[in-house]
Amino acid sequence: MFYSIGDGTGLGLGTLVRDRLNVGYGRKLIYSFTIFPSKRFSTSPVEPYNAVLALNGMVEFQEAASAVENNSLYKICSDQLGRESPTYPGIT
């Protein structure tokens, strides 16, 4: 499962899907790739607060997670993939 926990849509929809999977299929292994907000690509001043609030649900309902920060994704896109100027939608 891939989702971002900084903005409203990714956090809300991703959390809803994760919770519904947990209820519908019981305690199965849920592994997520979670994108954390960074100061450089922040689109909202409440992104850090959303991330902190989402951590409780991650601990409670997921068995494993890979966390990546937006700024790290930017560096991967620009340095390793050769994109000169990655855009915000292209990174997430």
Polypeptide structure, described:
With 92 residues, the protein is of the alpha/beta class. It has one domain (2-91): 3-Layer(aba) Sandwich (Rossmann fold), CATH 3.40.50. The chain is 52% helix and 16% strand. The protein contains four helices and three strands; from the N terminus they run βαβαβαα. The protein has helices spanning 8-25, 47-61, 70-80, 88-91; strands spanning 2-4, 31-36, 64-69. A three-stranded parallel β-sheet has the order 1-2-3. Strand 1, helix 1 (8-25) and strand 2 (31-36) form a beta-alpha-beta unit. The longest helix is centred in the N-terminal third of the chain and has 18 residues, at 8-25. The radius of gyration is 14 Å and the shape is globular. The model has no long low-confidence stretch (mean pLDDT 75).
Evaluate the radius of gyration: 14 Å
Strand order of the largest sheet: 1-2-3
Q: What letter string, H or E per element, gives the SSE order?
A: EHEHEHH
Shape: globular
Range of strand content: 15-25%
The CATH topology is given as Rossmann fold
Distance N to C terminus: 14 Å
Low-confidence spans: pLDDT under 50, at least 5 residues? none
What's the β-strand tally?
A: 3
Helix content: 40-55%
Considering the protein shown, what is the CATH homologous superfamily? Tubulin/FtsZ, GTPase domain
Task: From the structure above, extract its key features.
92 residues, alpha/beta, Rossmann fold, 3-stranded parallel beta sheet
Short description:
The protein is α/β, with parallel strands linked by helices. It has helices at residues 8-25, 47-61, 70-80, 88-91; strands spanning 2-4, 31-36, 64-69.
